[in-house]
Design goal:
The chain is an alpha+beta fold and 141 residues long. It has one domain: HIT-like (HIT family, subunit A, 2-Layer Sandwich), CATH 3.30.428. Helices cover 35% and strands 19% of the residues. A five-stranded antiparallel sheet has the order 1-2-3-5-4. Strand 1 and strand 2 form a beta hairpin. Helix 2 crosses helix 4.
């Protein structure tokens, strides 16, 4: 744990759970729905349990867990939301602790790629929490 890292501090305190709480957690990763004001419904965030910056710092076990979970999560998002594409984005600029955004784009969305990501899209908090619960149930099977 890095005491200067926002994500490490969030992981250490049960009082700072994100929207819809962490609906998936294993030895290597946590997943939750992004805050309602940060993206469209279905936008998920993966956070590493351990403090490290990027893929080069992952252990083999973390990389295996990440790949397996990413595949399951993208399939689940597509199933529940009919997303045509799921963008996987790792910036690591604002918080230097490995985290990955999964941002779905539906077939009817006019913009694609960067123009889509540049749009100011938000969602309804109630719908985000409900989706997180559906994903929790699916992933627990």
């Amino acid at each position: 744990m890095n005491k200067n890292c926002v994500l490490c501090l969030k992981h250490a305190s049960p009082k700072t759970q994100p929207l819809g709480v962490y609906f998936y957690s294993d030895a290597h990763l946590r997943v939750y729905h992004a805050p309602a004001d940060k993206g469209p419904l279905r936008t998920l965030l993966f956070e590493s349990q351990r403090h490290f910056l990027d893929f080069t710092n992952m252990t083999r076990e973390e990389a295996a867990s990440y790949g397996t979970l990413l595949k399951r999560m993208i399939a689940s998002i597509k199933q529940f939301t009919r997303a045509e594409r799921i963008y996987s984005i790792v910036f690591l600029e604002g918080v230097p602790h490995f985290h990955n955004w999964l941002v779905p784009r539906r077939k009817g969305d006019k913009e694609k790629c960067i123009p889509f990501l540049e749009k100011d899209i938000t969602c309804n908090e109630k719908n985000a929490v409900a989706l997180a619960e559906k994903l929790r149930k699916k992933l627990s099977k």
